[in-house]
């Protein structure tokens, strides 16, 4: 890893094994930002279809917990999983399946506020803890040209709600209230607290792993 000057860091001496149950490079990079380097990356493959009438918060918490349960590991290991959704009223906007759906999502989100919720689950054996964080985000209404250019950029692919705040879409977002890292896929302050509660403290001792 690169060790930023004056950095904080390292949980690598921790005797507990940490498995990140996620295929998201953003989650791995966010954890690295606070010096947490999972021993293994083991993505979970689950059915992400919402249940009939399922509310956004219930859905995202269920997803994070199901991902954690789907990963086989012995009781000595900690498993961290997460799920991020965009919610507009009671509508759940997950990862768009194609460009047309991404465009529909962006038209819906433009000119109003929506919520981005990430649920994180930490599992050790049968013990499961799930925490969720919500950020309020305002997106401006996109012109036809902005919309078509954004769709062409393909940055919407694999992103809940069809946009990535950490990329071009930052030009469309004049306001957020709450955690920024939560929108990108993992709320770091709460992730550090959750890990510490499971005896996996993120230590800020100036060493660099
Ligand atoms: C809203 C938003 C979401 N996202 C991403 C975070 C998540 O990776 C993704 C939502 O999909 P998720 O299903 O939460 O995660 P994933 O499929 O990428 O990875 P895994 O299930 O294996 O953990 O959207 C951004 O990167 N930026 C944003 O601004």
From TrEMBL:
It comes from the Bacteria. Its main location: cytoplasm. The record marks 26, 84, 166 as: Important for substrate specificity. InterPro entries: ITPase-like_fam (IPR029001), Maf-like (IPR003697). It is an enzyme of class 3 (hydrolase). CDD domains: Maf (cd00555). Pfam families: Maf. The keyword Ubl conjugation does not apply. SUPFAM superfamilies: ITPase-like. The active site is at 83 (proton acceptor). The keyword Nucleotide-binding does not apply. It is found in: Cytoplasm. Its EC number is 3.6.1.9. Its cofactor is a divalent metal cation. Keywords: Cytoplasm, Hydrolase, Nucleotide metabolism. Belongs to the Maf family. YhdE subfamily. Nucleoside triphosphate pyrophosphatase that hydrolyzes dTTP and UTP. May have a dual role in cell division arrest and in preventing the incorporation of modified nucleotides into cellular nucleic acids. This is dTTP/UTP pyrophosphatase. It comes from Amylibacter marinus.
